[in-house]
Structure prediction request, 534 residues.
Amino acid sequence: MASTQRPQITALTTHCIFFDVYESGQDVLETQKKIWALAQLCQNSGDFIDVVPANNNLTLYLKESSLLAKWQSSLLSHWHEIKSNDFTSTHHKLATVYGGDYGPDISAVAKYHNLTIDDVAQMHSSATYHVLFLGFQPGFAYLAGLNPQLYTPRHEKPRIHVPKGAVAIGGEQTGVYPEDSPGGWQIIGHTDFKLFDINAQTPCAIAPGDTLEFVIQEVLK
Amino acid sequence: MITILKPGMQMSIQDQGRVGSRHLGIGQSGCVDPYAQIITNRLVGNPDNHPVIEITLGLAEIQFDNDYYIALHGTDMKASVNGNAVQPGWSFYIKKGDILKLNAARHGFRNYLAIGGDWHLPTAILDSYSTDIAAGFGGLHGHALKAGDRFDITPKYATKIGLGAMLPPKSTHIRILAGPHASILPDNTCDKFTEHSWHISPSSNRMGARLLSDECKLAHSLSLPSMAVMPGSIQLPPNGEPIVLLNDAQTTGGYPIIGTVIEADLRHFAQLKPGDFLHFEFVSLEQAHLAQQKLVAHLNQLAIALKYKNAKS
Prediction:
């Protein structure tokens, strides 16, 4: 693979800039904190329709193509000046029922790691997770912070129906399904916390850069 | 009131789509051809960003329970009202009880139906009436229109004459801009992509136009960190069959990007149907900008012409 200079700044269209600082092996979360801070700076400038962080990169959608050159040349200095603690976020607590009918895969996950169901619930709920970015479907958060002892392969055949609110583990990631959908992750519990409600004034309860924790409401056997 | 009697392959309420919430995973939606939407709205005196009904393939029927001023534009679906042919690209009056029938499109894929007046739809979601079919919100009930769906429209008669307008010409020659992954894709992937012609796969939909080629193989084994994607992004999954993302696309993806369709040419995908051939050419940002200006000029000319016509009528 050819090496590419970082940050890489590419005009994807006359209205869109892709800013990429991903490098394999780097601390994803530390880099992402600066990405959130840069996203906030761009959002506050009023020059953009959309500012979309993803995995150690940021895509900027300009209101006017005449602003393209200005931002293409100024992003780099903003990146070097910005501090990861320039960013403010919200912490959310998600009351979660682990196991039973709500977490049909929790015993398989426990068995896979030679743990008890209580261990899985305890380890999963004792971490603080960072919302790296959202995507895949409205309100679906990619979370960083899963205990490596809980990394569990996805189902070989995805379930046709995963219910809204399902708390699940897929590979090195954990997350909550914001809507009923198909899905291949191991379902270990359920939360009533509404990640996405299109009729609410703020449809999406969480934003990129927020932190969250799962709080044990009950562990069912 | 209007009632959907037959929705055909797919029919949905769309405007220019939803922006400002991509970072929450909320996609754009909206008409695949926003220029056809604007022009059709103008023919019936609606504002540019007023919702229209996007009709895919045809084989559809709609009943009108009031007198309306309507227009159809996009492709010829051999439309008729009570057995009398109606011309695409012209506005006309439709009377209470009339049924608009559409046959199957032969040389295109989508039509836009504008109905003059105030549409009584559920509250706009994030400033748009567009139906997000995958996520299930917007439009009438958050899904594609189905037989029996009905909603009220308070008619507005903007003008007393039928008006016609041309759409900018269609094309199967698609101009694209270089993407961020040209240097990490296997040798000559981008050159091969533009040297060969492609055809539209039957599994294409509003999320994306899937491309197939008998002679061009672009398979790879790259896995990349997720990045934002948008209508026009050309993703290359490992199987080597590119996908041109369209209006119902998700907001992030992890496949390499071959390039991005210029904004002015994205509308062509509204009329490309399964089996149609197309080919791609890399252009510069300047060329993309000029192409866009040409479309804006087309709309400006139309605005002046309509103003003059309406002043005379």
Remarks:
- Chain A has two domains: 8-86, 91-220.
